[in-house]
Amino acid sequence: MNVAVVLYTSDLRLHDHPPLRAALSSSPQVVPLFVRDPAVAAPPNRLAFLADCLADLDAGLRSRGGRLVVRSGDAVAETTALVRETDADEVHMAGGVSAFAHAREDRLRAALEAEGRRLYVHDAVITALAPGAVLPAGSDHFAVFTPYHRRWADQPLRALAPAPRGPVRVPDAVRSEPLPERAAVTGTSPGLAAGGELEARRLLTGWLRSGISRYPEVHDDLAGDATSRLSPHLHFGTLSSAETVHRARAASGPGAEAFVRQLCWRDFHHQVLAARPGAAAGDYRPRGDRWRRGPDAEEEIRAWKEGRTGYPVVDAAMRQLAHEGWMHNRGRLLAASFLAKTLYVDWRVGARHFMDLLVDGDLANNQLNWQWVAGTGTDTRPNRVLNPVRQGLRYDPDGAYVHRWVPELAGLPAPRVHEPWRLAGLERAQYDYPDPVVELADGLDRFRRGREAGTVARPEPAPRAGAG
Fold first, then answer.
1. How far apart are the first and last CA of the chain?
2. Where are the alpha helices (DSSP H) in 276-399?
3. In the chain, N or C: fewer CB atoms in 10 Å?
4. Alpha-carbon distance 279 to 276, whole Å?
5. pLDDT category, 1, cuts 50, 70, 90?
6. In this predicted model, what pLDDT tens digit does every residue of 234-292 receive, in sequence order?
7. In DSSP terms, which residues pair with 33 in a beta bridge?
8. Which residues neighbour 76 within 8 Å (Cβ) at sequence distance 6 or greater?
9. How confident is the model at residue 460 (pLDDT cuts 50, 70, 90)?
10. CA 113 – CA 227 distance, rounded (Å)
11. Percentage of the chain with pLDDT > 90?
């Protein structure tokens, strides 16, 4: 009997899964495969979330008579070995955007073709619209979001692929390693959310029913926590980006429009990284920055990571990250701006820390959001600096977000909670909270001088075929 293999990567679902649907349509037997590749290193939070996702995917397949096959090793070698074991004719997988993903596809295609087999790479599985589906005149990608969004919004999305209703027949002889277990992962954040497709679909349904309508008014409310919380599921592919856009548009209204715009940002960053894989590690638009280094900078970086900078809203965001493996979107902007511009520390330091903790740590979104904030990416105002005091007063006016994550300031009411260093004498001594690591005016001046000096002799952009 003919056999097809479905290689799962960042698309751990049954609903709207074109590779699985194509494999089931072409072959009477299908092997759903996930390879634990040591080249794809993941920190504890993402490993624990991944364990949830794989367990849920396996349960969904078993309810249809199938199962998930798990192997460990190089993804190309393990997939090729499975093809030989089962005499499979073809392999189906979702297309990626990073340099690593492209290289993996190329290696797998070559290995399969050498044995007379075929690889089918399906676009628009990880994103709503495939990278490169819309292009500006004279370029291989859009470098500015607004024109990309206009073109993206006008494009019809592919038809959704329903979850398989019939049986998924997996050859009995195919061996599998045990599924990884969340409980076996150590070092996770205490408040880490649950993963898996069932949880993703529950969150999406609840969000569309009761959250999306007020999204434009409350999405920046730090304490209100009124965002969708869907980003980890979009990253692991337990939720289809295309289906999310379809269902959000069906909800209609300004809330749906604003939310879909955020989903477009995700596609935007993926198309940038697909065209410029070097942006994962190098400046997309170099500014000649002379980032601070040395003992003083290291001490401030440590304070930033620990949520002890002396700026309550920044510290609250960093402590939320440590506790949940997730951070409010507005908090991400504030924390990133503070490190890259107020402290004038290389954005890669912050991006690496975020990737170490974020359960939704997506290479394209994380790196390019950090570059946007640092002014080395696609922001058309590269020298903007967010003032953490003003941002705290605006987006946490009652101080509830700070009170939640910086409990040593819980007794200090707003608006004073955003500037505790202004307290005098005995009142200041009541609060075990550090003074600011830097005066905002001094940080701003330092950043401007560094950026201006760097623009005198700006280096060339990183080559297109960089590391990703």
1. 39
2. 295-306, 312-324, 329-337, 347-357, 363-374, 388-395
3. N
4. 6
5. low
6. 999 999 999 999 999 999 899 999 999 999 999 999 999 999 999 999 999 999 999 99
7. 7, 69
8. 104, 107, 108, 111
9. very low
10. 45
11. 96
pLDDT, average across residues 179-186 = 97
Q: Which amino acid is at 276?
A: R
Distances (CA, A) of 466 to 39, 232, 282, 289, 374: 17, 26, 8, 20, 20
The CB density around residue 338, as the number of other CB atoms within 10 Å, is 31
Q: Residue 136's pLDDT band (boundaries 50, 70, 90)?
A: very high
CB 218 within 8 A of CB 226: yes
**CB distance 98 to 280 below 8 Å:** yes
Q: Which segments of 69-219 does DSSP mark as H helices, in order?
A: 75-86, 99-113, 145-154, 197-210, 215-218
Taking the CA of residue 325 as centre, how many other CA atoms within 13 Å lie in the half-sphere pointing to its CB? Answer: 26
State the Cα angle at 141 between 135 and 147, rounded to 5°: 65
CB distance 44 to 38 below 8 Å: no
For residue 451, the surrounding DSSP H or E stretch is: helix 440-454
Which amino acid appears at position 179 of this protein?
L
CA distance readout (Å), 181 to 81, 92, 177, 197, 237: 25, 26, 12, 16, 19
Measured N-to-C along each axis, helices 295-306 and 312-324 cross at an angle, to the nearest 10 degrees, of 70
The radius of gyration computed from the CA coordinates of the chain, to the nearest angstrom, equals: 23
* CA atoms of 56 and 64, how far apart (whole Å): 13
